[in-house]
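Chapter summary example: a protein plus adenosine-5'-diphosphate.
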Amino acid sequence: MDKNEMRGNGGNRPSGQTFLILLIAVTLSFFIYSMVRQYFGRVVPTEISYSSFLTMVEKDEISRVEWADNQITVYPKDSASLRESADPGSLPEGWTAGTGFLTVVPVNADAAALVERLYSHHIEILKKKPDNSGYILEMLLGVVLPCIAIFLVMNLMMRRMGGNGGGMMGVGRSNAKMYMQRETGVSFKDVAGEDEAKESLVEIVDFLHNPSRYTAIGAKLPKGALLVGPPGTGKTLLAKAVAGEAQVPFYSLTGSDFVEMFVGVGASRVRDLFRQAAQNAPCIVFIDEIDAIGKTRDTRYGGNDEREQTLNQLLSEMDGFDAGKGIMVMGATNRPEILDAALLRPGRFDRRIIVEKPDLRGRVNILKVHAKDVQLDDSVDFEEIALATSGAVGADLANMMNEAAITAVKHGRAKVNQEDIFEAVEVVLVGKEKKDRIMSKQERKIVSYHEVGHALVSAVQKDAEPVQKITIVPRTMGALGYVMQVPEEEKFLNTKAELHAMLVGFLAGRAAEELVFDTVTTGASNDIEKATRIARAMVTQYGMSEKFGLMGLATEESLYLSKGTVMNCGDDTATEVDREVMRILKECYEEAKRILVENRNALDRIAAFLIEKETITGREFMQIFEEVKKEAEALPAEAAVESGIADA
Ligand code: ADP
Ligand code: MG
Ligand code: ZN
């Protein structure tokens, strides 16, 4: 891909700049020349006026003259006698014997008469060719050579300084990172999942292929398409794929490339970009992370002149170009809600293509795409991995596949097996194992009970997902232990009961700690955060609380970046909401405790296993769980009560 990546025409030095450097060089060398001449220059004859020359002739003070064109060099007679006889003032300053004076003959003076006159005063006349050779040489050495030298040095300096950003002189020139790719080498085959997005893009490929088919019928071609979706879902990849499929050049620039310190730079970059694109149509102009310039202009915090100018330029360029030529502007962003409305209106980015997080099938296909060049073992089952990675985007999955291959190499295997991939999934999701961190015995016990508490509650509740594995090996991303859950199928909707079960599951870790050790630790902070977020969403967004019913109390701040929500209700209501959230959490916590008390036997047995082995698989977990259940059923009714609830 890098091979045919080349700089756009913008990389050439603009001629205006060269001219400027040349001008500076010429001025500078003339200046230097005159300075040097002033101090070391050759002696130039003092000039006298033509009239004083005539006076000297009349007074017979001149012995000979050298006549070259209209210049006459005058050599006076014996200097001493001359000084006495001459009128004061008729002799020029700085006169020394033997040196001549220079005088210039007026243009319309009668040369023949002058010759006659000189002759009558017995003055020797020497006719000379004007001699400019010395002068030419001097100019050559004194001005032209330094000029060239200065020019070269400055040019070199400019290039150094200007490397990419254009430097001082290059400000306003878009030679920054504007990459034109003749062929992106990416096709739709390389983008898995995202079938809907691809479908809309196929149309765009067709526009670029044969625009005439559309214009013939009178249809106006769309000018721009905006790819919208969470980070890592393949927006950039899709844009490249469109260029690859249409086999047109691909101009790409990131939004932030436009925005520089100086006002007006971005605007001129936009102009440049479109000028180049117009020369190379049909082509695709891709502006990645367009929110950097396309931010809505009416912000409360005052605008940013540079960004606004850039945006305005972009808007007017998009209006200006002729879509019939086959220029397609594509943008990508994960914050569509902050884009300026003017960008989104018809005639600009009028097509919006949603690039969603991949679903189960999408994830399987993405894994397959990235496993294309990886040697796989028979044990690999992409379905299972895809199930375990709900919520992962293409970039994550690509990363996982690569990690798996590296893991396989580390273990000295020639092929990647399922375990490698699962290990990679863990690495991507919770970080690497931190083997050197040694937990005390008590800590291991607490962590074990905490994690088993989560898993056990999930297993007991019918609505919750079964457990894949539990470990208490600390991870680099901060987890001391964790429960890996693999859903049986992918869910797009959650019922209220499911959310409730989730809450109970999240709080079960803390419940187990309190139940067994009669104390609580800091280990539950993450659980508490997640549980609170869900409970709050139930109240404010999902309309799942009796108290507030269907009232929407909060809005999502960003659709794709999960930045949190903003409350849009009065202060009093917000207080009420907090109270309601608190109530829900408390209820769920009590339920978690109740479930654990009822299953105390299983909790102890599984925790003991985990403390010893550090890791327990889902199968081992269920085995112990079933065993305990059977034992309890075998016992008489009172005994069961004794072994379970009696503890509470
Ligand atoms: P973004 O949406 O943030 O622009 P990118 O297009 O840069 O994401 O994706 C980053 C990488 O993730 C890609 O280079 C590719 O390897 C991988 N990837 C993302 N989505 C997909 C997909 N749908 N199919 C295949 N690979 C993908
Ligand atoms: Mg991107
Ligand atoms: Zn926990």
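Key point: Residues 444 and 626 are 25 Å apart (CA to CA).
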